[in-house]
Amino acid sequence: MKAPRIVLTTLLLISACLLGGCASVAPWQRGALAEYGMRPDRDPLGDALAEHTYFSREAAFGGRGIGGGGCGCN
Amino acid sequence: MNTIPFPPTKCARGAVHLLLGAVLALCAFLPRIAEAAETGKPLPDLKGAALEGAVPSTRGKVLLLDFWASWCAPCRKSFPALEGIHQRYKARGLVVFGVSVDEDAGAMKRFLQQHAVSFSIARDQAHKLAEAVKVPTMPTTLLVDRRGVIRFVNSGFRGAETEALLAKQIEQLLSDSK
Question: What pTM value is reported for the model?
Fold first, then answer.
């Protein structure tokens, strides 16, 4: 099986472009990244509610644990 | 149309992997290499850095130049230590100068209200000095000898360990550059 050279070259160029998109933020520019809103645990109540909704609605395929249910009744 | 064998030969696969690996390595490591501040180089002119705030006179003195920001958690811990160093060594010819890289002047002022210090503070609002020095982390504490040469670059603040290291370096600079 043969693949056109242009396909492989394009794939290689796309990979290189994607890798080239990796940017380094200078240490003195990280103020926005350090904001409270960037923390994954910024809203514990919201997280708990979302987690409860997720495991009760998606339990049919396992949710966060074993499968079964999924009735959304708890 | 030119074609190459598919699946590619072992040699071609190796070459592609090598090339991608090299690109990835460049992406990962080049910025870090470029960002490292270097010892043995003269400190850029502080007066020409367009800092917001008074620049202390450092002529013939040892300078402790601390880059910090209000959003940087270790900076909060470093301020009492820097104030202690300032009080301990100012009579022997050490100048402590804190340069904030905050974009928000209000945030800097609020930080300084909570962590009051007596050494000089200025704001590098355009980040010209931080870029010129190539500050590697926040905070970074540079020690500059009496001739204006960067002698030590201390990245981060690790409590008593950093404090002891700074004291040792300051003692060395105060004694060997008279």
Answer: 0.73
